[in-house]
Design goal:
The chain is an all-alpha fold and 89 residues long. Helix content is 55%, strand content 0%.
Length: 89
């Protein structure tokens, strides 16, 4: 494990979820990937776009749809609202 000389003081030994905090290394990594990203091939970018579109389509397919309420469900909601209306409403 690479250690970093710059760490935040955390009382009681609390750490972040990853257990590693080094903002300077993270910043340098970000700059490196930004510079390398400028020189990627069109085929590489096309493959990344294709993978991201696939992820987006899978997410749309698996996301929950809007519930459809029947008249009976609406009647129950009206009764509940009459028993306990919204505060200030």
């Amino acid at each position: 494990m690479i250690t970093c000389g710059y760490r935040k003081f955390r009382p009681l030994g609390l750490r972040s979820e990853s257990g590693d905090e080094c903002p300077m290394r993270d910043l340098l990594s970000l700059i490196r990937w930004m510079l390398l990203g400028r020189f990627r091939s069109k085929a590489s970018l096309g493959a990344e776009i294709l993978a991201l579109r696939h992820k987006l389509n899978v997410l749309r397919r698996t996301s929950p749809r809007r519930p459809v309420f029947s008249n009976f469900n609406r009647m129950i909601f009206v009764c509940l609202y009459r028993i306990a209306p919204r505060p200030g409403g």
